[in-house]
Design a protein that fits this description.
Elements: H1 5-41, H2 45-72, H3 74-81, H4 87-100, H5 104-119, H6 123-148, H7 154-177
Helix pairs in contact: 1-2, 1-4, 1-5, 2-5, 3-4, 4-7, 5-6, 5-7, 6-7
Amino acid sequence: EDFGTAVMAAYALVNRVTGLVMQPAMGIGGGLTSIVGQNLGARKPERVTEAFHKANLINLVVSGLGAIAIFIWAEQLILFFLQSGAQDVLHHSMIYIYYILPTIPLMGMFSIFQGLFQGSGFTKYAMYMEIGRLWVIRLPMIVILSRFSNMGSTAIWLAMSMSNLLTIAYGFYLYRRKHWLGEFRPA
């Protein structure tokens, strides 16, 4: 299905706005990679767990506050990037932003899981999360919802939110299994 240029513009615009809130989490996740590698190499797995929890707490506070700010000023932020008269883009942007806002803290956690798994040498877990989020969950959901429902572009926004949520659930599953701890994994 062709969703049109207004939907594509809304997608790009909202991603630009939410990307500002995501930058700190991406930086924290990148920094966590080094902390995890250093502490596992120094045989201090307890510090890895502590760093992971602190990184998630910082992410939840920063991205949660950012999501609240976007919620409060959503229309003003979108209008900042729009030319006057682009009401169809504004309409689609407002729908998308409200679907994606609750998952902003989750996507911050995604970056932190990426840092944890990459730093511990379990890069395949990071890859599984990335590929699974887009190719296994999101794209099939978009195809199914857009072809077999009358949701229109809402199918895209719903699929994006659901793929983010399911990917974080998978990340927690991998985290709780503790395989990423390698030789420090509890018996």
